[in-house]
Amino acid sequence: ACSAASDHASVAEAQQVSAPANSPAQKLISAYLGVQRKLAADDAKGARASFGQLKAAADAKDLAGDAALKQKISTSAASGAAAKDLAAARDAFAKTSDAMLDWLKREGNPLANSVRVAHCPMAQDGKGARWLQTDSKLSNPYYGAEMLECGSIEKELKPGSKLN
After folding, report:
1. What value, to the nearest 5°, has the Cα angle with vertex 146 and ends 142 and 152?
2. Which of 130, 103, 118, 90 is nearest to 29 (CA)?
3. How far, in Å, CA of 53 to CA of 122, rounded?
4. What is the DSSP track for the chain?
5. Alpha carbon distance 82, 88 (integer Å)
6. Quick check: 116 and 157 in contact, CB under 8 A?
7. How far apart are CA 95 and CA 90, in angstroms?
8. How confident is the model at residue 21 (pLDDT cuts 50, 70, 90)?
9. In whole angstroms, what is the distance from residue 76 CA to residue 153 CA?
10. Segment 67-116, tens digit of pLDDT
11. In degrees to the nearest 10, what's the CA dihedral of 28, 7, 133, 140?
12. Could you tell me the pTM of the whole model?
């Protein structure tokens, strides 16, 4: 809480240099973050709807970036939108998260605030899985209420910076 004032200053600065509000890349990341929040809340129906928004954002004609990577995001989002239950949605989310991490390596964070890379070592039957979220407090989409804070924040990706 002590750094709240400096956080607001850096967000204000970032908004001046970031892409226009609701750019195609921002819509992509925002839709993904919507899926993450719905899964963390154990909301299968909401997650399916958010996956649909993510697929639409990945398929948008005005979204710049690698075509194969956009297709990978779109395909995994389509799987999530069709998921019959939370387990299937979470499997699709793991694939989607891998594609989104690749996206951030190539395209960078288009948002005016930081995105955090989180990791749960227990997800995906002990193989572990990563995801993106904006909050510094863990909100695990792979376990929801069962283990909402399982995992760790690995990196913080400031506005405009690329994942390395």
Report:
1. 55
2. 103
3. 28
4. -TTHHHHHHHHHHHHHHSPPTT-HHHHHHHHHHHHHHHHHTT-HHHHHHHHHHHHHHHH-TT--S-HHHHHHHHHHHHHHHT-SSHHHHHHHHHHHHHHHHHHHHHH---SSS-EEEEEETTTTTTT-EEEEESSSS---TTTGGGGTT-SEEEEEE-TTPPP-
5. 9
6. yes
7. 9
8. low
9. 23
10. 999 999 999 999 999 999 999 999 999 999 999 999 999 999 999 999 99
11. -160
12. 0.86
Written as six digits, the tokens of 162 are 């690329």
List the structure tokens of 142: 């792979």
Tell me the two tokens of residue 99. Answer: 């594609």
Residue keyed to tokens 């909402």: 148
